C-alpha cells in the first residue's frame, strides 16, 4: 500500500510533495493508517483531533489515543473539545452536520496558525461509494453523484482510491492499533445502514459490483469535469453577481440548448434538489420562489434571483420618541409639527399628533398585520393590500411600517392609515417624511 500511495501521490497529487500536512486524525482505522503512511513517506506531519463530546468517556479515550500516537511519532498534535450538541441546537443543524462544520473550521484555524500547507483526511473509496449512494437516494444532480472530492481547495484526501478492505489488511499486516467508534456499529444513520446492512449483501449477490460502481463513479466524475468546463462558459453568459447573491438571466438561458438541465446544474450546488420546481420557475409569475435548505431562488421578471437564506431575522425595531424630529435608521425620516396639511405623497403623510402614542415604532411588516387604508372604510390585511397592489416579493420584503401601540400609522411608501388622519378636530398636525 505504501508503494501504491507513493505512486498515486506522484502521479495525481504531486503538489503535496515537500509540503507540511495537517492530518485530521479521529483515531479510527483510516486516519491512523493515513498517518502511518504519510510518516513512512517522510512528509512533515501534525495530527489534529476533535473531541466532539458525543460518546462520553469513549471520546476522551479517542483523544488520548491520538495524543499518544503523535507522541510515538514525535510529531505535533492539536486537540480541541467541542460542545457539538449545543452548537447543533444553536445553529439548527443535525449533530453530524454540526460536527462537520466545527471540525473543518477548526482545522483551517490550526492550518493557518501553525503554517501547514494542506489538511488531509482519511476518506477512502468505500466512503466515496456510500456518499454516491446516499446522494443517489436523495435525488441529487450529477455533481452530487461525483461523490467525495479528492481535492477541495486546501483539503486533500490522499487515500480516496483505496478500499476499506485494503486499508484494514494493511493495518493488520503492520500490527497497527486504532480506535473503534461504537457509533459506527449503530444502524441509525443512512450511511451506517448502507455500510452495515445494504452493501454487504449487495456485494455477495453481485460479486464485483463494488468495483463496477466505482468505475461508474469515475466515469461520472470525468463527465462532470467536462460539464464543469462548459458550465463555466455558461456562467459568464447568464449568471451575474449582485450584492445579495446572483441573478440568472432567463432569456439568455433559454437561448442555450438544454435550458432546464443547465439551470439545474447552476442551482444544484446551492442545495436545490427539486428539479421540477426549479424548472417551473422559468415559466411562472414573478414572485414565485423555491427554497433549498440554505438558499432561495426567486423569479423576478426575466431573472431568477439566487440568495442565501439569512439566519437572523432581518432588523429589529426602531423607536421614535416624542418630539424627536429625525431618525436615520432603518432609513432617514423627518417628523415636523406644522399648521397646515399639504398633499399626501408616497414619501409624505400627515397625522393627528394627539391620536398617536409614543414611542412610535418602525418595523418590518409581518404576516397578520392589519390596517385601515386611508380613504377606505374598514380594515384590510396587509398581505391582501400588497396582493392588490401587485407587489413582487422582493418589494414586499423591503416594506416597513410606522406603528403606534402596534397599530399601523403608515405603510411607509404606500398608504397612511385612516385612524390617524388629520380631520376637523385635529389640533396638532405632524408631517412625516421619508427622505431616503
Ligand atoms: N474527531 C475527529 N478528529 C479529527 N478528524 C476527524 C474526526 N472525525 C473524522 N475525522 C476525519 O474525517 C475523516 C472521515 O470521517 P469519518 O467519520 O468517516 O471518520 P471515522 O470513521 O470516525 O475515522 P476514520 O476515517 O479515521 O476511520 C477521517 O478519516 C478523519 O480524517
UniProtKB/TrEMBL annotation:
Q: Which GO terms describe its molecular function?
A: ATP binding; tRNA(Ile)-lysidine synthase activity
Stretches assigned to the Lysidine-tRNA(Ile) synthetase C-terminal domain: 360-432
What enzyme class is recorded for this protein?
ligase
The UniProt keywords, alphabetically, are: ATP-binding, Cytoplasm, Ligase, Nucleotide-binding, tRNA processing
Offer one example of a GO biological process linked to this entry: tRNA modification
InterPro entries attached here? Lysidine-tRNA-synth_C (IPR012796), Rossmann-like_a/b/a_fold (IPR014729), TilS/TtcA_N (IPR011063), tRNA_Ile_lys_synt (IPR012094), tRNA_Ile_lys_synt_N (IPR012795)
Compartments (UniProt record) = Cytoplasm
Which reaction is the catalytic activity of this chain? cytidine(34) in tRNA(Ile2) + L-lysine + ATP = lysidine(34) in tRNA(Ile2) + AMP + diphosphate + H(+)
Main localization of the protein described in the UniProt heading: cytoplasm
Entry's EC annotation: 6.3.4.19
Q: Could you say which residues bind ATP here?
A: 26-31
Gene3D superfamilies in the cross-refs: HUPs (3.40.50.620)
**Cellular component terms (Gene Ontology):** cytoplasm
**Highest taxon of the lineage:** Bacteria
**Family to which this protein belongs:** Belongs to the tRNA(Ile)-lysidine synthase family.
Q: Which NCBIfam families match?
A: lysidine_TilS_C (TIGR02433), lysidine_TilS_N (TIGR02432)
- What role is this protein assigned? Ligates lysine onto the cytidine present at position 34 of the AUA codon-specific tRNA(Ile) that contains the anticodon CAU, in an ATP-dependent manner. Cytidine is converted to lysidine, thus changing the amino acid specificity of the tRNA from methionine to isoleucine.
Regarding domains, what does the record say? The N-terminal region contains the highly conserved SGGXDS motif, predicted to be a P-loop motif involved in ATP binding.
Q: What is this protein called?
A: tRNA(Ile)-lysidine synthase
Origin organism is: Ulvibacter antarcticus
List the top taxonomic levels of the source. Answer: Bacteria, Pseudomonadati, Bacteroidota, Flavobacteriia, Flavobacteriales
Amino acid at each position: 500500500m505504501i508503494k501504491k500511495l507513493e505512486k498515486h501521490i506522484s502521479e495525481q497529487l504531486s503538489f503535496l510533495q515537500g509540503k507540511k500536512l495537517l492530518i485530521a486524525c479521529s483515531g479510527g482505522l483510516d486516519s491512523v493508517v493515513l498517518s502511518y503512511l504519510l510518516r513512512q513517506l517522510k512528509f512533515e506531519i501534525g495530527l489534529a483531533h476533535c473531541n466532539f463530546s458525543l460518546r462520553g468517556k469513549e471520546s476522551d479515550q479517542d483523544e488520548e489515543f491520538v495524543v499518544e500516537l503523535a507522541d510515538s511519532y514525535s510529531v505535533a498534535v492539536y486537540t480541541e473539545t467541542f460542545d457539538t450538541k449545543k452548537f447543533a441546537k444553536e445553529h439548527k443543524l443535525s449533530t453530524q452536520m454540526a460536527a462537520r462544520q466545527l471540525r473543518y473550521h477548526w482545522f483551517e484555524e490550526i492550518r493557518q496558525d501553525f503554517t501547514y500547507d494542506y489538511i488531509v483526511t482519511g476518506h477512502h473509496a468505500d466512503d466515496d461509494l456510500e456518499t454516491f449512494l446516499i446522494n443517489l437516494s436523495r435525488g441529487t444532480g450529477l455533481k452530487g453523484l461525483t461523490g467525495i472530492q479528492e481535492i477541495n481547495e486546501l483539503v486533500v484526501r490522499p487515500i480516496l482510491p483505496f478500499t476499506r478492505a485494503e486499508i484494514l489488511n494493511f493495518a493488520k499486516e503492520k500490527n497497527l492499533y486504532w480506535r473503534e467508534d461504537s457509533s459506527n456499529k449503530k444502524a441509525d444513520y443512512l450511511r451506517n445502514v448502507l455500510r452495515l446492512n445494504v452493501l454487504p449483501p449487495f456485494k455477495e449477490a453481485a460479486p464485483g459490483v463494488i468495483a463496477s460502481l466505482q468505475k461508474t463513479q469515475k466515469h461520472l466524475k470525468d463527465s462532470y469535469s467536462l460539464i464543469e468546463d462548459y458550465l463555466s462558459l455558461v456562467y459568464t453568459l447568464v449568471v451575474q453577481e449582485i450584492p445579495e447573491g446572483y441573478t440568472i438571466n432567463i432569456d439568455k438561458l433559454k437561448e442555450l440548448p438544454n435550458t432546464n438541465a443547465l439551470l439545474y446544474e447552476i442551482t444544484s450546488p446551492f442545495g436545490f434538489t427539486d428539479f421540477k420546481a426549479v424548472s417551473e420557475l422559468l415559466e411562472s409569475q414573478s414572485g414565485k420562489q423555491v427554497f433549498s435548505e440554505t438558499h432561495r431562488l426567486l423569479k423576478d421578471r426575466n431573472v431568477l434571483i439566487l440568495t442565501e437564506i439569512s439566519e437572523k431575522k432581518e432588523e429589529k425595531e426602531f423607536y421614535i420618541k416624542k418630539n424627536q424630529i429625525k431618525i436615520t435608521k432603518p432609513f432617514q425620516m423627518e417628523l415636523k409639527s406644522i399648521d397646515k396639511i399639504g398633499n399626501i405623497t408616497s414619501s409624505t403623510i400627515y397625522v393627528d399628533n394627539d391620536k398617536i402614542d409614543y414611542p412610535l415604532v418602525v418595523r418590518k411588516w409581518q404576516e397578520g398585520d392589519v390596517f385601515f387604508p386611508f380613504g377606505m372604510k374598514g380594515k384590510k390585511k396587509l398581505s391582501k393590500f400588497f396582493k392588490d397592489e401587485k407587489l413582487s416579493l422582493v418589494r414586499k420584503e423591503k416594506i416597513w411600517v410606522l406603528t403606534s401601540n402596534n397599530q399601523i400609522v403608515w405603510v411607509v411608501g404606500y398608504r397612511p392609515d385612516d385612524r390617524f388622519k388629520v380631520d376637523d378636530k385635529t389640533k396638532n398636525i405632524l408631517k412625516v417624511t421619508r427622505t431616503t
